[in-house]
Amino acid sequence: MENQDLFDQNSGLRKEKSVLEANNRSLQSQNNELSQEKACLEERNATLSSDKVRLTRQVDTLIADVDRVSREKLETIQEKDALLETNQGLQSEKEQLCRTIESKNEEINSKDAKIASKKRKLSI
Asked: Taken in order 39, 45, 49, 50, is the CA torsion positive or negative?
């Protein structure tokens, strides 16, 4: 009976070994798939890292461009303000000159009227 027990035990162990070997093959297959997936993910990560570096450079360039344009815009606004101030000064000078010319014209017209009056008196 001992031989039969040993035979049965051996048979059970062989079946268990067969199951374990099948499980091992399945796990090795899964491991291979996961290794391939890992390699793909690592490649994708490298691509994304490269893209990130490139995009970061582009963003830095854009920020520098925005800063430059903002400075230029500020300079343009300051120049415009200076020109407006100059224009207002010139407008005031123009108005003053117009008043002066108008006053001088009135003086000339008054003198012309006096001369004309004297000429009439002399011709009479």
From this structure: positive
Distance CA 40, CA 51 (A): 16
C-alpha–C-alpha distance, residues 17 and 11, integer Å: 10
Tokens matching residue 13: 């162990």
CA distances from 87 to 40, 42, 95, 115 (A): 68, 66, 12, 41
Residue 22, pLDDT score: 97
Cβ neighbours of 32 (radius 10 Å): 10
94-117 in b/e form (b: 16+ CB < 10 A) is eeeeeeeeeeeeeeeeeeeeeeee
Taking only the tens place, the pLDDT of each residue in 72-108 is 999 999 999 999 999 999 999 999 999 999 999 999 9
Q: In this structure, which amino acid lies at residue 11?
A: S
| pLDDT tens readout for residues 3-26 | 888 889 999 999 999 999 999 999
The model's pTM is 0.55
